[in-house]
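Session log. Operator J.P. requested a structure for one protein chain; no other inputs attached. Running the standard single-chain path with token output.
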Amino acid sequence: MKKVMADRFLRRAAQVQGRADEVVRKLCTRAVFEEELISAGDRILIAASGGKDSTVMAWALSSLKRSLKFNYELAALHISTDFCACCKKSTLAEKLEGWGIPFSDLFVPVIGRLKPGRKMNCYWCSTQRRTELIKYAVENRFNKIALGHHMDDIIETFFMNLCAKGELSSMPVKMAYRKYPVTLIRPLALLEEWQIIAGAEEQGILKETCTCPYGVNSKRRDMRERIAGFTGNSGAVKRRILTAVKDCLSNGRS
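Structure written below.
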């Protein structure tokens, strides 16, 4: 209980003092160095969904370039689909380019690619988008793709796979493909979702982002509630779980 109260105090302190964006920068920097996510000369393609997570990540990676002692290139790719055209796409492009990040848009008919009788689902969508991201990265000589998944995403995925499939698997913080000269990185891996939301509000990002019309799927939402129940939403507990997940799952290759 004391730890939960301490976490709540830290949340309020970060927001009241107006330091939420610095928390994002600090934890993103820590992830970059501890997990060796970025090296000098990297060409990084940001998967810009238009949501708060990937937009905050883009801001953080751009702002870190001024303080890190090595240089890297950033560009963003937004994938428009036949079920979500992202009405705020022009605002997203303007904001990214203001941060010095070139913006590109690619249309992918996710629903149109479904086989007869199949229904739209989050797994199908993510698979199609990931395929196009990798293809675009390879064709344009990007060696890394940055995804906006945060700590809560990683932990939820671990328990969903454990409970539903009996598998010890999740989203690795860093993963190099065997088939392609591309590595996936997740610079927000040490951030809880509430920290990203606070940082987005402070940077004026939250009101300019869009969300998927399918929303959070029910299984993930249920798992999020179950995790909140046994962790008390304690950041310290979740960080220990993340450490255990990373120890269990080495940053392997796929």
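Operator note: The longest strand covers residues 73-81.
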